[in-house]
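hi! just following up on the protien thing from before. the input was this:
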Amino acid sequence: MSSLTNEVSIRTIVPTLYLPILLLVLVPTILGQDYWKEKSYKEWSEKECREMLQNSPWSRDFTETDVVIMGTSDSTLSDSKQPYLKYQIQFRSAMPVRQAIIRKAQMDQKYDDLKPEQKKQFDQQAESFLAQDLSQMVIVYVTWATNMPTLNLELANEWKSRTTESLKNRVYLYGSKGDKVPLAQFVAPQGAQRSFQFIFPRQYRGKEILGPEDKSLNLEFVGIYMEFKTDKMQINGKVEY
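and the predicted 3d structure came back as:
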């Protein structure tokens, strides 16, 4: 938990959300619905944390099969395997997702076995992490996975070369009734990470991204369209994102 911080600027929040504990295996799960409303996040199981981070109202994936590079299949891929490219999306600014991050760190570090002073330090850092003020931004965390080594290398080079300027007319967040909100900041992959982040303002042209009539929150990036149902994203009667 040493990488958690109580800094709240965009520059410090973004690296904070690249925690090592978040290198997840993309495995679909089917669990009880709305457990995040029924009990404290401190009681979530490992499976529930995984579901929150992979397959929940705030996270889902987009998978493309029969992928080719330069018009031909990757020669390093076995003929017995179906080529694929998967993008996993998470709304990292949503409180349930951040709670799952903390809860997973708690289990990974065997919180119950820590000494009292270690528990105190963990709790202080966790509280600071959850208390970060994200009221002015929406953070979308994206990871990719593929069984095509050549494609993986090309994607890494491609996303590392991208900038906010090159993506601002290709990446949008918007409600079902509102204007498309352009990208405010892009955070490229760091080192060997297969992940990056999109940051959007919560208000655009004097209005919130989501209005009362919006039935979905939509993400569009480089030809990919993903829809998140707002009725499933509500916490205490308010859409959390």
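The chain has a mean pLDDT of 83.
The chain has one domain: 10-239.
cheers
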